[in-house]
Design a protein that fits this description.
two-stranded antiparallel sheet; globular; Alpha-Beta Plaits; single chain
Length: about 180
């Protein structure tokens, strides 16, 4: 791909000093060749979703620009995860506790399905820990699959939770210190 693409990244951690890890990971991404970090949401403390754990997560969403194609950006994200001690994304029995998780949510308005990468991320619409920070930094962002704004997706998820169609998701906005 030529030129710059705007990319939305989810950051998460539920092991170690998650606050420090997320901040340092974001700074490290900004030092990577071909990547410019633009904006990072507040951190959000959340209960685990889709896994069992006694550890709360710290999550954020950031916007960056890159001249890397999605596959090479994914490799860079994985290198940053490994820098913080991450060895695998999931285990045989699903998601695991992690020091750092970096996921591509959106890559411009691209829709991509491959064995290594799904863009947009397939679980955005069901996760408050993604939608709340995304709405904070880019409420009008359009999902290329649904045509809905981040804010509309967030409201729809809140309504599904209220009606009991989705499980309760505890979330609390914090401050970077």
């Amino acid at each position: 791909m030529s030129g710059q693409a705007r990319v939305w990244i989810a950051l998460g951690s539920n092991l170690g000093d998650s606050h420090r890890i997320l901040k340092q990971a974001w700074l490290l991404l900004g030092q990577e060749t071909g990547i410019s970090v633009l904006r990072l949401s507040h951190p959000y403390v959340t209960a685990p979703v889709g896994m069992e754990s006694d550890h709360l997560f710290l999550n954020a969403v950031g916007i960056l620009e890159t001249d890397l194609d999605p596959e090479n950006l994914l490799l860079r994200l994985q290198q940053v995860e490994h820098h913080f001690g991450r060895v695998q994304k999931t285990g045989e029995d699903g998601y695991k506790d992690r020091l750092l998780d970096l996921d591509i949510l959106y890559y411009g308005d691209r829709v991509q399905t491959s064995s290594k990468l799904l863009i947009p991320h397939p679980h955005i619409a069901a996760r408050l820990f993604v939608l709340a920070p995304l709405v904070e930094i880019d409420p009008g962002h359009l999902d290329p699959l649904t045509g809905l704004t981040a804010e509309a997706m967030y409201r729809q998820l809140q309504q599904r939770i209220k009606r009991g169609e989705e499980g309760f998701q505890k979330i609390e906005r914090k401050e970077w210190s």
